[in-house]
């Protein structure tokens, strides 16, 4: 759409016009400065599951496996999968790992996110310029700066999992820029039109492989083509009958729209085929979607939309999680006591009024608003619950692209207010103050995202009745060793939400470690009664029942856990421990073998196999198992230690010595004095048997120096000295 000079009011904004390169540089520098503090952040919240504990991020995992797994490393067709298919985002994580020589460096991940946000902000500057036909430089610059510093984007930039939104947004904007070029070309051949549109479809598919919202790039392009390039208005449709519709839509547009439609449907089909089945969300994830009344669902969705708009307009309330009591449901039977219903009615009245203006007005100003409105609404549709359920109430990360349309509307409103000269100066000052405040808020919010404890505490200010906030805070406290406060937080989370099965499971784990087995058992039994396929709770129930000597029930619980999660190496490990306690050595060995088959780096399972075979006298088999384990983990000291013990019993003293020394060398830089004492004590026994008495005495003494309370090296040292003294006396 070409801008008429009579309609053009970019000059009303009280800001200087910068050269294009200076605008790009300004946006990039501002966005980097605002998020500079997140550079020192750690892996927080979802980062742990998506990056730290995700085997797909590990360079040793074959790349092809990424394309059959979801974002969290679970097989995409598994019923327990979240169905979030983002293989290209996982590849970007692997790239960060590769840059750091196989290490998980938070700084590398956060730096990449900051740079990507700067790139998206600069691309958006270009897109805004295109939307104003390069005649709205000040409007575009202000809008892109507002986007760069907006606090609602902190979750995307400061959390590593926000990489998905950054990559998807980047590809989305590139698609639009390319599509704009073919739409604005005065003369374009059918072949070029066809190939370029196909290329846009391919890039949209790539955007979707970063995050699902990327598929909306084609929708936005198609709508832009119809309503902006072809200037389709209500009046134009009324004037032309169905037979004359060709007169208002260009032939090239027809071709592009057909390709976009086919491409869009094809991508959706491929996505559905890969997914296999829709995701299964719990009631707690998105309570409004589980309401039986369609009217109540729409009312609650509408209120959620209002909250989304509010946090974009005034980003004071920012929270890492908005579920579980954060936003109580609106019920029709509480009308008119619940004042939120009036907000919903007001919201729809405003939407209807805006829609009327946008549809029926020919004014150029409203056509500009139409662009911002469509950009915001269309990119938000996948998170709107209108087409399918989503797994959240509010997620600030999904506002990343929609905020680009919202910000454009705000800037157009600012420009409209600047008509009067006096108002122009006041508005200019207010805008500068607003940008400074937003920048400070973004910097401060980025600080909160640097550590989990501060992040979870900040959420209590926004959602003090959110059980999930208390749950996450309890989990963090437990990990840091503050078990008493963790127990209190878990109990409070259960008070807020009595059916919170995950809180029951975690609280039961702490109580189990404190030997409070009966209460742990009660909690776990309730957890699995609430969620029958809760594999982790079934496994933990097995551990508790085993501790209570209820072996048959424990075995049933483990088997139930494995029926819900076939790939569960830790469950096989615990099942093996149960069989060992019952004296069922063959079954124990088989269970541990399953654990190491599913997770070749399961050190404890390997160690248990070696020790058990050693104990029952199967020394040669123990040696073979140890060799296999060391071929996978050559730098694991416990495996060298167990191998050394077995070789010592086989009288292979030289080989045993080598493994003992390797174990000691690998462990010497740690603070584990008890293990060092054990390693030296056992090496002393080897030398004792090997009749290298001086070396034996030396290592017994070293063992005692590491752990003065360890009795065995003291007894062995006395025995050695008694023997050597007797030998000396007999020889003289």
Give an account of the 3D structure.
There is one protein chain. The chain has 732 residues and is mainly α. Among the domains are: 172-277; 300-419, no CATH class. Helix content is 68%, strand content 0%. It is built from 33 helices and no strands. It has helices at residues 20-34, 47-52, 63-66, 87-99, 106-131, 137-149, 154-158, 163-184, 190-210, 216-229, 234-239, 251-275, 294-313, 340-360, 364-380, 402-417, 421-448, 452-462, 467-479, 483-496, 501-513, 517-530, 535-547, 551-564, 569-581, 585-598, 603-615, 619-632, 637-649, 653-667, 673-689, 693-706, 711-731. Helix 10 (216-229) runs antiparallel to helix 12 and helix 21 (501-513) packs antiparallel against helix 22. The longest helix is centred in the middle third of the chain and has 28 residues, at 421-448. The chain is elongated. The termini are far apart. 42% of the residues are buried. Mean pLDDT is 88; it is low at 1-7 and 241-245.
């Amino acid at each position: 759409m070409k801008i008429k000079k009579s309609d053009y009011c970019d000059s009303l904004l009280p800001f200087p016009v910068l050269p294009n390169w200076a605008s790009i540089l300004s946006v990039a520098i501002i966005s980097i400065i605002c998020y500079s503090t997140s550079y020192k952040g750690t892996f927080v919240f979802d980062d742990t599951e998506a990056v730290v504990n995700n085997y797909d991020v590990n360079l040793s995992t074959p790349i092809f496996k990424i394309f059959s797994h979801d974002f969290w490393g679970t097989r995409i067709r598994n019923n327990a999968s979240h169905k979030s298919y983002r293989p290209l985002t996982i590849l970007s994580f692997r790239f960060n790992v590769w840059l750091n020589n196989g290490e998980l460096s938070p700084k590398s991940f956060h730096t990449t996110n900051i740079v990507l946000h700067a790139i998206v902000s600069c691309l958006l500057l270009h897109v805004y310029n295109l939307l104003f036909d390069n005649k709205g430089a000040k409007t575009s610059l202000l809008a892109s700066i507002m986007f760069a510093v907006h606090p609602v984007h902190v979750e995307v930039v400061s959390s590593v999992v926000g990489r998905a939104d950054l990559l998807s947004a980047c590809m989305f904007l590139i698609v639009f820029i390319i599509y704009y070029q073919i739409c604005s070309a005065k003369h374009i051949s059918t072949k070029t039109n066809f190939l370029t549109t196909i290329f846009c479809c391919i890039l949209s598919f790539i955007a979707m492989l970063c995050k699902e919202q990327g598929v909306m790039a084609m929708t936005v392009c198609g709508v832009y083509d119809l309503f902006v390039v072809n200037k389709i208005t209500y009046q134009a449709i009324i004037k032309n009958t169905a037979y004359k519709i060709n007169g208002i839509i260009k032939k090239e547009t027809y071709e592009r729209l057909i390709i976009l439609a086919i491409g869009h449907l094809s991508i959706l089909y491929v996505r559905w085929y890969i997914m296999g089945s829709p995701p299964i969300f719990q009631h707690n994830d998105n309570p409004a979607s589980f309401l039986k009344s369609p009217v109540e669902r729409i009312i609650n969705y509408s209120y959620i939309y209002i909250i989304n708009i509010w946090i974009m307009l005034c980003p004071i309330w920012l929270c890492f999680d908005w579920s579980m009591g954060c936003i109580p449901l609106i019920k029709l039977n509480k009308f008119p006591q619940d004042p939120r219903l009036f907000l919903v009615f007001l919201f729809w009245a405003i939407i209807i009024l805006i829609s009327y203006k946008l549809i029926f007005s020919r004014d150029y100003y409203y056509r500009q608003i139409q662009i911002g409105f469509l950009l915001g609404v269309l990119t938000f549709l996948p998170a709107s619950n209108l087409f399918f359920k989503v797994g959240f109430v509010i997620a600030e990360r999904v506002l990343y692209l929609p905020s680009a349309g919202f910000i454009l509307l705000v800037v157009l409103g600012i420009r409209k207010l600047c008509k009067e000269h006096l108002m122009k100066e006041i508005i200019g000052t207010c805008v500068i103050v607003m940008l400074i405040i937003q920048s400070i808020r973004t910097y401060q919010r980025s600080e909160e995202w640097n550590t989990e404890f501060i992040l979870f505490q900040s959420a209590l200010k926004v959602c003090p009745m959110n059980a999930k906030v208390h749950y996450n805070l309890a989990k963090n406290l437990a990990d840091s060793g503050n078990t008493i406060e963790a127990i209190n937080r878990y109990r409070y989370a259960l008070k807020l939400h009595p059916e919170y099965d995950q809180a029951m499971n975690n609280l039961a784990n702490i109580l189990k470690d404190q030997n409070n087995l009966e209460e742990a058992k009660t909690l776990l039994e309730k957890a699995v009664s609430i969620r029958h396929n809760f594999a982790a709770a079934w496994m933990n129930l097995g551990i508790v029942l085993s501790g209570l000597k209820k072996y048959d029930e424990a075995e049933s619980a483990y088997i139930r856990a494995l029926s819900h999660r076939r790939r569960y190496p830790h469950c096989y490990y615990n099942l093996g421990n149960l069989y060992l306690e019952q004296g069922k050595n063959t079954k124990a060995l088989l269970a541990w073998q399953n654990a190491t088959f599913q997770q070749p780096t399961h050190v404890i399972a390997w160690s248990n196999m070696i020790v058990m075979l050693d104990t029952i006298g199967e020394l040669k088999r123990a040696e073979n198992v140890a060799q296999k384990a060391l071929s996978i983990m050559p730098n694991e000291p416990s495996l060298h230690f167990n191998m050394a013990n077995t070789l010592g019993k086989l009288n292979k003293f030289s080989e045993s010595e080598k493994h003992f020394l390797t174990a000691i060398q690998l462990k010497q830089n740690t603070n584990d004095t008890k293990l060092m004492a054990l390693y030296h004590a056992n090496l002393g026994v080897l030398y004792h048997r090997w009749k290298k008495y001086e070396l034996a005495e030396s290592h017994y003494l070293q063992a005692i120096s590491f752990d003065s309370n360890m009795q065995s090296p003291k007894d062995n040292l006395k025995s050695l000295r008694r023997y050597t003294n007797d030998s000396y006396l007999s020889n003289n």
